[in-house]
Amino acid sequence: MHSRRITPAQILAGFSGDVTAAQARQLLEHVLATLPGDSSPDVGAIPIPAPRGPATQTARGLELWVVDKPDRSQVQLRVGQAALPGTHPDALALWLGTVAFGGMFTSPLVRAVRDERGWSYTAHAGFDRQSPFLSPLVLRSAPDAEHAIPCLELELDLYRELAQGSLDSETLDAVARIF
Fold first, then answer.
1. In the chain, at which end, N or C, are there fewer CB atoms within 10 A of the end residue's CB?
2. If you write DSSP's letter for every residue of 5-62 in order, what string do you get?
3. pLDDT tens digits, one per residue of 26-78
């Protein structure tokens, strides 16, 4: 058996997006700390031109992508919206609200999609509160093809209600007691 030690100077890491050298170093610290030798390699940046075109524009309204997979009985449905980075002061509150809305079997999203209508075995809402970057709030479900459009309509209605403060204090208190 042959083993080889890697030093920080041998590592090449790439990042894309709006990441500074300091942020890159912070993201790599946990990896570099496990390596022998100097754990502070030179972190430099190669300037890359900013992308141009429709993908860089601010999102306006709902963007819907349909991927047709013939002969499939289920649709992998995702509804998402950019929310907050995990470093934002409101990230924990948003995460707790997301868990209350769709992160437990007793959540309103799960009840409406799975329990009351039986449209999808899984229904879930998630938000990555630990991401140092902008993280989306995502609703996930897998309805059968026949119920995909009504399920999407229901999820959008529930999401609008959530945005208008529809979570009752009992649901929020239940989540707060768990976490």
1. N
2. ---GGG------SS--HHHHHHHHHHHHTTSSS-S---------PPP-SGGGSPP-S-
3. 777 766 777 766 555 555 555 544 544 444 444 455 556 666 677 888 888 99
